[in-house]
Amino acid sequence: YQRRVHGGFAPGAALGPVITKESKSRIESLVQSGVKDGCKLELDGRGVKVEGYESGNFVGPTIMSGVKPEMECYKEEIFGPVLQVMEADTLEEAVEMINANPNGNGTAIFTSSGPVARKFQHDVDVGQIGINIPIPVPLPMFSFTGSRASIRGDHHFYGKQAINFFTQTKTVTSNWNPAFRPPTGAFGAFPTL
Question: 101, 69 in Cβ contact below 8 A?
Fold first, then answer.
């Protein structure tokens, strides 16, 4: 199966351009820093040219393995089609490594063990977790739930939380039982039972 990099609305396109030339340059620079620091580039998406969009901001799918916590490519959120593969000897080491990163966007684990998956999802401090799914990016009906340095403000911008952000709530308490109406028809005190 091959991912087709093309204009975002082109039929059959699986991956469109990144948002700006600066974004493309930043992504490619972080990939290069990983290579310089010792990552193995399993799939290189830099330098992609798309026919008809030769000046486009395209970065193809990129996979880097051997990523270490001290590498710039790990410390910075890349925000591009780049998968960074890290390995740990124990679950505790993996959780510690993830929680030590100042960012908290998302992470994934691949396991056939339900107890390991459950412990992982409860112990890591990130907003999005993939279990046997490589990229835990939610659809718009779910909240984007980054944490720590991966969120700005106090609300998320997708799903129910986005609706709450743009909605003013109102609570109305009423009583239509005639037995509780004062003789004047007006009631000015806070209701009590």
Answer: yes
| 16: nearest Cα among 27, 26, 6 | 6
**Whether pLDDT at 49 is above 70:** yes
**Rounded-to-integer distance, Cα 129 and Cα 136, Å:** 6
* Euclidean distance between CA atoms 126 and 147, whole angstroms: 6
Residues shown for the chain: 193
Pairing of strands 106-109, 128-131: parallel
Task: Provide the phi-psi class of 12: left if phi over 0, else alpha when psi is between -120 and 50, else beta.
Answer: left
Q: How far apart are CA 126 and CA 102, in angstroms?
A: 10
| Tens-place pLDDT, residues 124-175 | 888 778 888 876 665 555 555 555 545 555 555 555 666 666 666 666 665 6
How far is 137 from 174, CA to CA, in rounded Å? 43
- Could you give the CA distance from residue 3 to residue 16 in angstroms, rounded to a whole number? 10
In whole angstroms, what is the distance from residue 80 CA to residue 91 CA?
27
